[in-house]
Every structure is written in structure tokens, then in C-alpha cells.
Amino acid sequence: MMNKKLKEKMMEAFTSVLPVTIIVLIVGVVLTPMPSGTVLMFLVGATLLIIGMGFFTLGADMALMPMGEGIGVEITKDPKLPVIIGATLVIGFIISVAEPDLQVLGRQTPSIPSHILIGTVSIGVAIFMTIGVLRSLFKIRFSVLVVIFYIITFTIAYFSPDTFVPIGFDSGGVTTGPITVPFMLALGLGVASVRSDKHSQEDSFGIVAMCSVGPIMAVLLLGLFYNPDPVVAESYALYDAATSRDVVRNFVIEVPHFFTEMLLTLGAIVLCFTIFQLVYRRYKRHQLGRIIIGFLYTLIGLVLFLTGVNVGFFPVGQLLGFQLASSPFKWILIPLGGIIGYFIVAAEPAVHVLNKQVEEVSSGAITQKMMNRGLSIGMALALSLTMFRILFSIPIMYILIPGYIFALALTFFVPRIFTGIAFDSGGVASGPMTSTFLLPFAMGTCEGVGGNLMIDAFGIVAVVAMTPLVVIQLMGLIYRYRTRQTVAMTKEQTDAIGAGLSKEAIDWGKITIFDED
């Protein structure tokens, strides 16, 4: 059974990574030829990425999901607010530090030391995860709260240095990644399960969205007080890959470093879980065994994932972007970004989970096919717009302010549950492929056109994360329209039958009613 589930997870990861791999290989052969050793490094990195994501997602299902739901249920049973607040703050900080997408982003910010960025973002997650839990407990409407916090966020952004604005909004997207999202969703369900009112299901969404706002505000506030020395970003040096032995050595050398780093990070989560289990005694022996195995799978997955990303993906992504931006046909980056965006979101495993969830919530009014198409088109437009922004050095706020104003305005017109799902899904769209390939690709493009790395390259994750806020809420408007249409049609049918129409066919589109003798 376990082997079967692991194969399923690896197949999901394979379908996620394959489209980008094919596109890179085609571009690397036709437009910007790369050395064969570099291509081999990229393929090995993609393989490790697939295996690592497979192990990691299975481990998250076995360990992080039950842990999150259990903690959500237990801490909200205790009526003491200090217990709820203290536990959520500690857990939020720890799981954010462990987030692989955040680790990836921390290594790519040239002017902010990684430990400062990761610590700042984790504090933001901890505070706003607590706010998300309290919002659900006190039944505060999500749309009102999110509008208030985004107004505050954009106000702070106005005063924050330009170099911190793109990285601030990017941090909100990468924080809600493969470790935090399963845990947060499970925590939200656990908290909502202790309520029995009619809005409990709707309020189970929104914690992920709160945890996206927190890092943005935290990094923007950091920009007001922290003045880093100017740093010139260096290109990723291509590894020596003259032979297959060189390729293997390059990856093997990096494994111990990431193993030690992730062991310490996950050790903090294990310690937190151990204290929780000693206090509440929630899990049985067989459940504990499954959770321990899940943590081992998570550790293996993270080590392989980060090794494949840092050694295989980063250098190739940045090299490809630099070569295309430096070439006479750099305009091709705009349609190429659209193609990459379309296939990345269509193949992202978490997107399929989201689409199924929306179809169930809307009782089939919004199908998975509609969601797939809407998100794919939205993501394609987002990445094409991002490439255009980098090529012509357009300020990120020219895109984010209109986008968020539109998204926040929609919150007052769509069903409440769609608002929660939409804002939670920003982290789903900006998955592992965004931080591992698209961000280095954007950095290389920026370097190729001679742009400002901190201002022009960063921001790609923010635009990607903003897309579902608009698309899913537009789907919610369609759902509301179709629901009202169905109610009106049903009323017409009832009135027609009540009027005693006989021997007369009434055409109602797909429904034909006959009153037979």
C-alpha cells in the first residue's frame, strides 16, 4: 500500500516537472544551445526533484496533515486564549522555517542575508496564523479582515524602500508552500470542526491567506529599519560537468549540507509534536508509528528536493533567462513565459486538489475543467506580463495595486466560501516550480537586459500568487449567477405545473416537461 501511494505521489511530481523540463530542453537546443554537461545536470536535478517531491508529499500526508488537524482540535478545546495564542505562534514560526520554498527564496536574495529574511518571514507567518485561528473562533468575516490588512500592507509598501517591495510580496507566495499549506489547511479544518454553526465550513478557509499577508507586512516593515549594504548579484556558476562522474560528484557533495540543515529544521517540528503529544495524548501507538515514518519521508524528500534544485535547476534557469534576454530575439520571452505558465499550473498536483474541492463546494456548477482552463489562462497572462515588466523595467506596483483592488472588490460580491478558497489558493498556484525555476529564470532575464535585480526580477512569485485571487472569485460570480438562474427556472417550472398546463410541451433548455393524461 505504501509503495503504491509513493508511486502515485512521484507520478504527480513527474507530471508537474515534465512540462518545464521539455520546454527548457527545446529552448536549450533550438534557441540558446547549452553544453551537454549542463543539460545532463539539469536532467539529474529534475529527477531528484521528482523523487524528492514524491517522498515529501507522502510524508506531509502521513505526518503534517494529522499533526495540523490534531493541534487545531486540541488547542481550541482549551478555553484559555493565552494557550491558543502561544501554541499557534510557536507552531507557525517552526513550520515556516521548515518551508523549502522559503529556504529557496532565502538563498536567492543577494542583499538580505538568508537567516534575516527567513526569520522575519517566519515571525510574520506565526502572528498571522494566530490571527487566522482567532478569526475562525470569533466568527469574524474573512472579506472584511483581508481588506483591512491589505490596505495596511499597501500603505506600508508606500513608505518601504523600492528594493524591499518585490521581495516582500514574493515572500507571501513562497511561504505558503508544500510544508505550510497542508498543515494550515488541516489546522483550519480542525479549528472549524469544534464549531457547529452554518458558517463553520466557510471559515475553515482563510488561514493560508492570512499567512500570506503576514510575511509581506513583516518584510516591508524590515525595509523601514534594516539598511543592507548594496550587493551585486552574481550569476550562478555552472558546475564542472565534463564527465558523468563529475555530474554525480556535484550532487553528492551537496547532500550532507542539506541533510544537516533539514535535520535541524525538522527536528524543531518533531520536538514541538513530542511536547504536544505528551500534553494531550491524542495519538495511539500505531498512529505515532505512521507519523514517525511520515517525518522520515519528509526529511528524505526535502534533502533530495533542495539538492536537485540548487545544483540542477538554479544555474540552468538563470543561464537560460540571461541568454534569451541578451539575444536579438528577447521578445520571445513574453510568449515563452505564457507557455511555461500555462503548463506549470495545469500540471501542479495541488491545483487538481483545489479544482476538485471547488467542484464539490459548488455542487458541480464550477467544474474541474473550467477551473483548470481559468487558472491556466490566468497564469499564462501573469507570466507573460511579468516578462514584459522585466524587459521594460515596469514597477511592480503598477501590476499589484490594480490586481489587488479588483480582487478585494470582488470579495463583497461572491459567496463567502469562494473568497476563502481564492485567497488560500494563491499559495497553491505559486508552487515549488515557481521558486525553483521561474525565479532564477527571471533573475537571469533581468541580468541579461541590465535591470535592477532586487526591483525588476523579484515580484514574479507575487504576480503568480495574485492570479487565483481574481480567477477563482470570477468563478464564484459565475456560480452565483448559475445558482440564481437555476432557482428562477425551478420556480417557472413549478408555476407552470401548478397552472395545470396539459398535453403541452414546455422547453426549458435541457429540461422538457410533459404533463401526460
Describe the structure concisely.
With 517 residues, the protein is mainly α.
Would you mind describing this structure in some detail?
Helix 6 (142-159) packs parallel to helix 9 and helix 15 (397-410) runs parallel beside helix 20. This protein has 517 residues and is mainly alpha-helical. It is built from 20 helices and two strands. It has a two-stranded antiparallel ribbon. It is globular and about 80 Å long. The protein starts with a helix and ends with a strand. Mean pLDDT is 79; it is low at 508-517. It has helices spanning 2-30, 36-77, 81-97, 100-106, 114-138, 142-159, 165-175, 180-193, 207-225, 244-280, 285-326, 333-347, 349-361, 368-391, 397-410, 416-424, 426-429, 432-449, 453-457, 460-498, and strands at residues 506-508, 511-513.
Spatial extent as radius of gyration: 24 Å
Mean of pLDDT: 79
Q: Main β-sheet, in a few words?
A: 2 strands, antiparallel
The largest beta-sheet arranges its strands as 1-2
Helix content: over 70%
